[in-house]
Amino acid sequence: MADETSERDIPAKPRRLTDPKFRALVFQILASITVAAFLFFIVRNTLHNMELRGISTGFGFLDRVSGFGILQSLIEYDESSTYGRTFLVGLLNTLLVSALGVFFATLIGFVMGVLRLSSNWLINKLATVYIETFRNIPLLLQIFFWYFAIGFNLPSPRQSITVGESLFLNNRGLYLPAPVFEDGFMATGLAIVGSIIAVIFLARWARKRFEATGQLFHTVYASLAILIGVPTLVYVATGMPMHLDYPTLQGFNFKGGLTVIPELFALTLALSIYTGAFIAETVRSGIQSVSHGQTEAASALGLRPSWTLRLVVIPQAMRVIIPPLTSQYLNLTKNSSLAAAIGYPDLVAVFAGTTLNQTGQAVEVIAITMSVYLVLSLVISVFMNWYNAKMALRER
Amino acid sequence: MSHNFVPLPDQPPPTASVGAIGWLRRNLFSSIGNTLLTLLSIYVLAVSLPPVINWAFIDADWVGVSRDACTSGGACWVFVSARFETFMYGFFPAEETWRINLIYGSLFLCMAPLFFDKFPYKVQLGAFVIFVFPIFGFILMFGGVFGLTPVETSQWGGMTLTLLLASVGCVAALPLGILLALGRQATNMPAVKSMCVLFIEFWRGVPLITVLFMSSVMLPLFLPEGVSFDKLLRALIGITLFQSAYMAEVVRGGLQAIPKGQYEAADALGLSYWKKMGLIVLPQAMKIVIPGIVNTFIALFKDTTLVIIVGLLEILGMVQNALNDPNWLGYSTEGYVFTAFMFWIFCFSMSRYSQALERKLHTGHKR
């Protein structure tokens, strides 16, 4: 500090209080002290209050027996399982409904976003009505609507709505045929994995050859042939070791097959329709962001319309679409916590709800729940940054 | 040999390219694919619309006081009209609802001039609405002074509570959001910057529902012994913290859009940090971010429905509550459609307004 000031032509004794660096330092120290004092105050109060209420701190409660059942679990779970297991079940249910929601929302969003730009007036208006309606109604209300107003008024199992006698929808849920794998299905599974790897290598090789020689290889057809052909061959050769288990009506309810509980059904429906409307807007603005000059230049170069779309429009539109799309996925995952309102056993319902009520470990439970969502958003934003860096324009 | 050239009258354009037929050909039947799509959507509409219209309007029952009036098999709007007071005012005493109406009326009078470009005292009026009006509103809602009967917060509810949560959350979050955004931009103070980043990213990363859980079960633990907050206030604290993080990101967008020359010019004039921000940067930045603020307000407005989880009954909560009334079992569709309609009107008009603002305020800040 002293050297710097002597070099410059300012008074020998710098006026400390007006030196921006010094002021910044003082201000930061003050701010840090305030925050630390505030945190200390909270922690002390919390410890004191918990002591008063006789709640022990720590994560030991995770090993205790929970004693309550859960409507739907992807892993083995019963009343004698621990709270730690409860947490896992809730987490997996959250991930399940998020994955389903992301899949269907993307499907709905992309279709509706493209239809929204259709030159067909009727289609265009229908897509607009869909987007503007569902974007502007609270998600919780939509969940309630599908669950209480529609789900409860579906017919009873005997009068199920059915598609081809294999898919049944009634007020107990959605019943689907379930695939049952027998011995020897392993080979088909391996064939599927193997053909996926083969297709990836094929695509790389085709691209390299195209860039080196300009010769085209019909990757799409070849990949489809490999992806469908090889597993089918293996499947038939090993004697078709899989059959579908159809749900059948026995007494008052369906037996067998795959059951989607009404809570999951309503939640997935509401999440995909709500987020789909937002994704549709993202897709529309992404496609519109590619200037008309680009498509004109492509046709001037003699590219076919399908190539124009694949090589010129989509790559540029995706660059605009992907960042908001990931944040929509993130929103969907966070919104899946509304499951608690209709009793779908997600992380918030079984952990921040039931477990918290039973154990009273408010601080630990809420901290764990929040950090799960924080980690999820961190992972997604890391991925987003990586993708952005990969897709960013490389200007030459 | 001179004769005047008299042109023949113009031939009418082919009927297939102008007028209604031309429009139909261009917009609905321009190609085989389009024709198929058009026919398909007409079929879908023909199948789905008439039953809905029948249910909602033609077969619906509109007048009456109890469910006995609902006999025609369509929608029973009697449910909504009979419960309308609760949906709007919650459990506010009926003889005191004039206070809520007074708040709405005076707020409308204060806000109306803000929508006219020519009105000269916009900033002052805006400041009045944001800083002074809440006090006036609070006194009217809470009562207890000037001879007004006190009304407990547990009696607040319905649409009033929805609007209250959203607007208080937004107004309280604004100053906090501005401070956080300034802190996040303060590159010369790494400690302050990282604290702001942590705060913002934390609240943006967790769902509102866990925030509400936290404010209802953890906040009482944070406070010294004997101090306790009202349920509504706890929810408001959670919502404000949550909203301030989103607000900060919106404001940051505005700060980044201001050209660097503006900052440098302010420095060159020798303005202090707060003068630079308050007189040069923020006035310009806030103008740009108004549409963004309206958008976060819309999001918050929809999210207020979540307070049902912590036992506060805003409009959706009131509808849920009414649906549990044994006299009105089975009218959930009507209740939800009505609520959806209310929300839709508010959100749709606000989003249109924010789009219009965006176009109007787009005055050359984009580079």
UniProtKB/TrEMBL annotation, chain A:
Organism the protein comes from: Denitromonas iodatirespirans
Origin superkingdom: Bacteria
Entry protein name: Amino acid ABC transporter permease
Gene Ontology MF annotations: transmembrane transporter activity
Entries under NCBIfam families matching the protein: HEQRo_perm_3TM
Family: Belongs to the binding-protein-dependent transport system permease family. HisMQ subfamily.
Membrane-spanning ranges: 24-43, 87-115, 136-154, 184-204, 216-237, 257-280, 338-356, 362-387
Any GO CC annotation of this UniProt entry: ATP-binding cassette (ABC) transporter complex
GO-annotated biological processes: amino acid transport
Keyword Transport: yes
Main localisation: membrane
Entries under PANTHER family matching the protein: AMINO-ACID ABC TRANSPORTER PERMEASE PROTEIN YHDX-RELATED (PTHR30614:SF37), MEMBRANE COMPONENT OF AMINO ACID ABC TRANSPORTER (PTHR30614)
Automatic annotation (TrEMBL), chain B:
Signal peptide residues on this chain, from the entry's feature table: none
Pfam families per record: BPD_transp_1
Cited CDD domains: TM_PBP2
Record-level Gene Ontology MF annotations: transmembrane transporter activity
Localization of this protein: Cell inner membrane; Cell membrane
PROSITE patterns found in the cross-reference section: ABC_TM1
Transmembrane segments: 35-58, 98-116, 128-149, 161-182, 202-223, 277-298, 305-323, 335-353
Keywords, in A-Z order: Cell membrane, Membrane, Transmembrane, Transmembrane helix, Transport
Family recorded in the similarity comment: Belongs to the binding-protein-dependent transport system permease family. HisMQ subfamily.
Name this protein carries in UniProt: Amino acid ABC transporter permease
Provenance organism: Denitromonas iodatirespirans
